[in-house]
Amino acid sequence: MVTAVDTNVLLDVFLDDPQYRQASFAALTRAFSSGDVIVCDVVWSETGAAFDDAELFLHAMDALGVKYSPMTKGSATRASEMWRLAKQRKSIPPRRVVADFLVGAHAVECADCLLTRDNGFYRDYFADLTVVNPL
Fold first, then answer.
1. If you average pLDDT over residues 106-134, what whole number do you get?
2. Residue among 132, 126, 85, 130 nearest 105 (CA)
3. Burial class of residue 10 (count of CB atoms within 10 Å of its CB; 0-12, 13-18, 19+)
4. Distance between CA atoms of 7 and 32, rounded to whole angstroms?
5. Which CATH number fits the domain that encloses residue 54?
């Protein structure tokens, strides 16, 4: 089983979020016990930006065991299709950006499920994606 992880779950753990850390850490532990845990370029970059030092970030990701899984042309193309659909529907929430579509499309193509606290959006645009909420 391959689990893709969204930025919010990793930041819950790395930034010691008082509300979500425990649930996110437990969900990550379950994911690691069942197989590989991966992140795409977007999640890698967003998570890395939360660290003051690149080496500290790389060490933290290695220590946790998260694997980098780059976007493919197929997942990037699917993200663009879903972004276009959202714009046509005029249903893009104010906080939604194309990066979220990239995360979802990557998870569909490269993983068995996506671990995220942002489950409603992904279920709406990626119906074939199994979404796991740590809460």
1. 92
2. 126
3. buried
4. 16
5. 3.40.50.1010
Residues making up the chain, counted from first to last: 135
CA–CA gap between residue 109 and residue 73 (Å, rounded): 10
Q: What is the pLDDT of residue 94?
A: 54
State the CB neighbour count (10 A cutoff) for residue 75.
22
* Structural domain count of the chain: 1
Quick: pLDDT tens for 63-80.
999 999 999 999 889 988
Please enumerate in sequence order all residues whose Cβ is within 8 A of that of 53, keeping only pairs 6 or more positions apart, or say none: none
State pLDDT tens for residues 20-46: 999 999 999 999 999 999 999 999 999
Enclosing domain of residue 85: 2-132
Task: Round to whole Å and give the CA distance between 56 and 47.
Answer: 12
